[in-house]
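Anyone? Bumping this.
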Amino acid sequence: MPNAGTLTINKLNKHYRVKDKDLHILDNVSLSIRPGEFVSIVGSSGCGKSTLLRLIIGLEADYQGDILLDGKPISGTSLDRGIVFQEHRLFPWLTVEQNVGLALENSTLPADEKQRSIQEHIELVGLRGFEKAYPHQLSGGMSQRVAIARGLVNRPEILLLDEPFGALDAMTKYKLQNELQHIWETEGITMILVTHDVEEAIYLGDRVVIMEPRPGRIKRILPVDLPRPRNRLDLDFVRLKEEILSEFGIDQQAEEEELAT
Amino acid sequence: MASLKDKLPAIDPRGFVLPLLLIVVWQAVTSSGWVDTRIIMPPSAVLSAGWKWLNSGLALESIGASLFRDASGFVLGAAAGITIGLLFGTSKLANNVFGPTFHTLKHISIFAWIPLLSAFFGRDDLAKIVFIAFATLYPVALATIEGVRSIAKSQYEVADVYGFTPRQALFRLILPAASPQIITGLHLGLIFAWLATMGAEFLLASTGEGLGMTVIRGRAAFRVDLIIFGMLIIGAFGMLLNELATRAESRLLHWRGHAR
Amino acid sequence: MSTIQSLDKPLVIEPLASLLPRISIPSLGNLPARFGRIGLGIIFPLLLLYLWQIATERVWLPPQLLPEPAFVWETLVDMVSSGELAGHLAVSLQRVLWSVLIGGSIGLAIGFAMGLSKTAKAYLYPSFSLFSQFPVIAWSPLMIIFFGIDEALKISTITVAVIVPFAVATYKGIENVPVKLREVGQIYQFSFAQTLWRIALPAALPAILGGVRQGAMQAWLALVFVELLASSEGLGYLLVYARNLMQLDVVMVCMATIGLVGLIFDFALGFIERHFSRWAPKGR
Ligand SMILES: Nc1ncnc2c1ncn2[C@@H]1O[C@H](COP(=O)(O)OP(=O)(O)OP(=O)(O)O)[C@@H](O)[C@H]1O
Ligand SMILES: [Mg+2]
């Protein structure tokens, strides 16, 4: 499989200036990701996960430190690096299939190939029959699934996923997790998944990166040395989950309270 | 989607009271002999004069000429307006350099341009069309600027991620995203264009045919029947254009759904 | 709801300026940036002026069509110091003032009637909506027949132009007073007058003031038109008169004056509007 190079993040720092005040968002983040690796990132709300993904995808140019792909600094966005945004960001004036097709706008595939691929991915996320629907006719979860299809359809070499399954029901979520894993295994895409769901992080990841807030930094990186397909009820799985949850301590509780409000 | 029929509640007969009353009073006043019927004509006289005019072939020519001017001016003005709007909306530099002049000139009420335009372009179709285009340009340009500025950064980012060329960004993102405002601007421009068509025909009435000219000549000849009938036709076409625009608007923007 | 919908855009020819994003009071922080921008904004007019100067010097166009900038300036100074401009301006402003007063009252009355009473709306609304779609200036020939070409013509034509924006704004303002607020009035057993005075009017005020601004802009538009059409004094008259003598310098001075007055109207009324809608949530 043709793969992207190694993604190396080295002493990455990110600041935002808000009204003359300096906000330190990411503090010395260093992480190296092998081609074809699946990395999960967990961390409390506001700790800079989305910001990290925005930096890797190339939407933010103002940072300190290095983001290297095979030793070369990334510059701007590229079709080799795809993203599923935290909010679905569908274009409201395009139908589902047109939205998915956006990702193939600049692909060299012949038209019928494109159409087939679009259809395949719409079916993959379980939206057959909604090809001609507009975003305002979809539920939040359905929109999110269209966004996932859009992220996958052009087969980037690195795919960043920002809480892609957040708005989905449990059944759909399990199904899409498996589909994602399948695509990852067969296509050798490097995937970086941000999630609030620790179970999901372990189920999919080769490694789980735990981040902590203010300023956002990496607290711990845990390898997941469990054979795939993984069993969520497996003893090692559960032990790992408890270990990660304990890392959060009261943070996790605070977040649940935050979610509850 | 929502045509006029769907929007209006079941027709309420009370709405007819006022217009009927007007016609009755009008008829009563004119047949009572209180007024000079050469100045205030009975409704029947207006209708018969109108009928004659419609059958004379002159009507078709007038209406055709007016609609031609309206359409030419509108198309030119709309194209220029959208171009200017896109330029100002997307380029800070263009906006800063030309914006102040553009926004200052807009305060000159449009009819004040007519004398100057007539000095340059004469009093024929050219001057009229230039004027109509000018009247269309402003609402379209202002709406386009607003539309382009309202595009969220997050949507530009999607275009970035998928490596859109500037051309793709224009046709795939900027134009459709700004289309609600642009279409509203075009609608407004259409109303303005019709107003300007009539204004130009009233004020530059020297040659040719046109609805406005028919009316203004009717005034010179004290043909009140023709004036009133002409006014009704002008109003009717205004409403027709408006209704067409409303329909086109809801059809083109169906992707927004009802709730926004 | 449905009826408000149909009253939405098509009815009123919104003044162009209302489409503009609102000017905001600049904070002191970005003063240098603002100066930079103003500097940029001045380049283009200066360039035009320079081009104009060159064009007149090299006589690209006959001086009749394109008078020298200095000559136009002289004309302006002359017309200001002789009081000629002020005289015509005063006539025009008076016409607008009367029309806004008369048309505004009628418009407010119609708007209040339609907004407050379902019965009044049933009688008035269809006719009004028909009336409002007529291009204002289409009335003028009829007005000339009825009123001659004197003061009454101008006032009546401009008045017609003012009624619609006033009435629409008032009607919509009152219709859109949230039911929740009206219910508060019901709970406290407000009388009709109290409901009107304490709830409907204040809640609708921003919309009504928006209507005032639109009305004034429409009045200015209609004034120029009707003065161009038939008049013996006023800015519009001066425009036609000068145009017929091919004194384009005077034409330009008149246009500038008309623009300046439009600008002042817009800013002043916009300021008042914003002042009285401070409590209203921003954005639409
Ligand atoms: N454009 C910006 N300007 C200023 N501050 C920002 C900006 N974008 C993000 N931030 C701040 O950066 C911090 C991290 O934001 P980020 O969106 O990366 O969090 P996150 O980890 O993705 O949170 P969540 O799990 O809720 O999505 C937050 O405190 C946020 O307020
Ligand atoms: Mg996030």
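Late reply, but here is one note on the structure posted above: Residues A 16, 18, 23, 25, 43, 45-51, 86 surround adenosine-5'-triphosphate (ligand 1) (CB under 6 Å).
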